[in-house]
Amino acid sequence: MGDAPDQAAAKTATPRAPVTIERPVPTKLDFDRPYMARALEAVDAEHPEGTPGYNNDGYTVLQLHVHYFDRNNDGIIYPWETYAGLRRVGFNVILSFISALLINLALSYATLPYWIPNPLFPIYVSKIHKAKHGSDTGVYDTEGRFVPNKFEELWTKFPKTHQNKLTFKELMGMTAALRVALDPFGWIANKFEWSLTYLLAKDEDGLVSKEKVRGVFDGSLFYQVEIARTNKAFSERQGKLKK
Ligand code: HEM
Ligand SMILES: [Ca+2]
């Protein structure tokens, strides 16, 4: 009955669980040790060295994701720093204010190096791995590394209409698919993270590319967006001066 054991052992899908057919996993990845979680660089098939020219400064990929928000570089992210960072990447006053409150309220306590809650809701970059929640992609491991294989899985499982790009619907389908049982905190947090990602990373056609998402994971996209916005503002000001 069924496959010979050696063939069966290599199967990645079965009709008895149609979801394994609908959401296929990568079967071949042509870069160095995709299974090996990387501390410093968000490595994928197209970027086996990570993000060139982006100084990781010895921070884990998850630390890099939040380090952008620690402008004064003291290792602590206060709500007003989160707010300022969200504004810099282009979110409006209302969304930035609500998001900053939610992020710091939800994540602060888990990252504190002491037991007493801090009413200023600081987030400690050194302990950011403790703020991981359920129903996520698993691309960050529990220590805050980046797992290339898990990242690649997103791009075989969830895009249905464009290669290596997700529509809004597909992205929301992904957050629904990532839900694990009895984890309302994780469900909401994940939906929130991927909604912000959509707003930040979508192109003119409303698609979110693999490369932009990789940039969200290692935080490099935040810097890119800020630089692009500053240049635009600068050239607009110059345009005004010329008139
Ligand atoms: C524009 C702003 C932001 C965007 C677009 C964003 C997006 C994301 C995304 C897509 C993930 C991966 C979720 C998954 O694996 O399913 C994530 C994870 C995470 N983010 Fe953000 N984020 C932003 C700001 C922040 C800020 C300000 C903080 C804290 C200071 C933060 C802390 C985290 C943490 C701790 C995780 C790990 C959660 C987990 O995987 O369980 N993020 N974020
Ligand atoms: Ca700070």
Reconstruct the topology from this structure.
Blueprint: H1 5-8, H2 18-22, H3 61-67, E1 76-77, H4 79-88, H5 93-111, E2 123-124, H6 148-157, E3 165-166, H7 168-177, H8 184-201, E4 208-209, H9 210-217, H10 220-242
Antiparallel strand pairs: 1-2, 3-4
Helix pairs in contact: 4-5, 7-8
Bound molecules: protoporphyrin IX containing FE and calcium ion (CA).
Distance between the first and last residues' Cα: 80 Å
Determine Rg (CA atoms, Å). Answer: 20 Å
Number of strands: 4
Beta content: under 5%
Element pattern in H and E: HHHEHHEHEHHEHH
Short account of what is shown:
By secondary structure, this protein is mainly alpha-helical.
